[in-house]
Amino acid sequence: MPDTVAHGLLAGLDEIAGTGRDLRAGGYSRLLWEPAEHELRAWFSERAQRLGLDVEVDRNGNTWAWWGKSGPNAVVVGSHLDSVPGGGAYDGPLGVVSALEAVARLQAAGFAPTRPCAVLVFAEEEGSRFGVACLGSRLLSGGIDADVARGLTDRAGITLADAAATAGLNPAHLGRDQAALDRIGIFLELHVEQGRGLIDLGEPLAVASSILAHGRWRLSFSGQGNHAGATPMTGRRDPMVAAAHAIVAVQQAALASPGARATVGRIEAVPGGTNVIPSSVTAWLDARADTDDQARAVVADVSAQLQAAHSGCTGTVVEESWTGTVTFDPELAARLALALGGVPALATGAGHDAGVLAARVPTAMVFVRNPTGISHSPEEFATLADCLAGVEALDTLLRELL
Ligand code: GLV
Ligand code: MN
Ligand code: MN
Ligand code: MN
Predict the structure, then answer these.
(1) Which of 307, 336, 345, 400 is a good FRET partner for 210, with 20 to 30 A between their CA atoms?
(2) CA–CA distance, 342 with 328 (Å, rounded to integer)
(3) How far is the centre of ligand 4, averaged over its atoms, from the C-alpha of 30 (Å)?
(4) Which domains are seen in the chain, by residue range?
(5) CA distance 337 to 345
């Protein structure tokens, strides 16, 4: 591995290491079109331009950097720069930095691609601002209705349409972008692994085989807001208590369905005062399982418990996003695994833009070992040696595909 690659990769990660730090949660909070995320995109554009790439932002806010002429039948390699609240340094950025580094390395070697190539940064992969994960790839591919997307709101009540306009996009143009999509011949995403798969295998790299079926549901509870001191315990209609029952039901439903995973990672009480019985509570459910039916059965189980209306409250369940089980193109995966000298195939429980695109174009992923096995947390990690193995892998795969 030439030393310049180590320096380039490190420089890339270092240059953004100070952007979007979350002093409360630790790690990074880089939410779509907020200042930190703007800064990261500006950084990406500047870096891509330094490599002589042509940068363009598509109708949905995804940023493309073309090496030579744009599409058709391009090999597109990319990931995302946004994060979950309090996320790690690698989820997303490692794929972007590695893609730029692989292109730089091919250029330095005088490699001449025989088909178009682009580095792509998707918008709002985590869904941390507007609630729908992989929003940029869903919009691009028509995986979400444009009107539904325009009406999504962030925590401050700002609609996606308004935020897009503020970010310089035309909200009327959000939605399926067939011309942009048609340029992709193959999509490739390198990503830090988010579980313990590669630790257990004792390997630095793997090619993705599948992604669990997964989705998000909004659980809403409504009761009677009232005074915490003046209201006797009997007869209260406290939606926080109803939500608490539901959260326990979420855990029990997943435990009863081997392999399923269900999480409530976010909850909001209105109005949210220590001495106020809330009038309403919203909790967001993330449920995942091996098959679509299994994931939906877990949610149906939770839903049935909600209908059993605890504490005199009403509860409703609304689906916010859904991605069925993804099986990556087995031929492409086998070809890439072979090109990498026989790396293992690995299934994942984490969602990715590659999973959304897989339904439309041949798509593959490369995972880089995460020695902590922890992700969506500041403890997410990848060693320099494994990151360099990832760049080397992208270099090899781009040579194979271009
Ligand atoms: C994104 O990383 C997800 O799997 O939620
Ligand atoms: Mn993530
Ligand atoms: Mn990610
Ligand atoms: Mn993800």
Answers:
(1) 400
(2) 17
(3) 13
(4) 3-212+325-401 (3.40.630.10), 213-319 (3.30.70.360)
(5) 8
Torsion of CA 295, 297, 298, 304, to 10 degrees: 150
- Residue whose Cα lies nearest atom 1 of ligand 1: it is 351
The per-residue pLDDT for 282 is 97
Ligand 1 atom nearest to 91, measured from its CA: 2
| Neighbour count for residue 229 (Cβ, 10 Å) | 6
Q: How confident is the model at residue 225 (pLDDT cuts 50, 70, 90)?
A: very high
pTM of the model: 0.95
Calculate ∠ Cα 284-93-207, nearest 5°.
85
Residues in contact with 166: Cβ distance below 8 Å, sequence separation at least 6, in sequence order: 33
Specify the ligand 1 atom closest to the Cα of 375.
Answer: 2
| pLDDT tens-digit map of 299-358 | 999 999 887 667 789 999 999 999 999 999 999 999 999 999 999 999 999 999 999 999
From the CA of 85, the nearest ligand is 2
Cα dihedral 98, 25, 139, 217 sign: positive
Residue set of the binding site for allantoate: 216, 275, 288
93, 224, 344 from 192: Cα distances, Å: 9, 45, 15
Residue 15 CB neighbour total at 10 angstroms: 14
**pLDDT higher than threshold 90 for residue 219:** yes
DSSP state at residue 153:
B
Mean pLDDT of 146-160: 97
349 Cα–ligand 1 center, Å: 8
Residue 269 host element (H or E)? strand 261-270
Pocket of ligand 1 (CB under 6 A): 126, 133, 350-351
Mean pLDDT of the 152-175 span: 98
pLDDT at res. 1: 46
> Which residues keep their CB under 5 angstroms from ion ligand 3?
91-92
User: Which residue has 């409703």 as its token pair?
Assistant: 316
Output DSSP code: residue 56: E
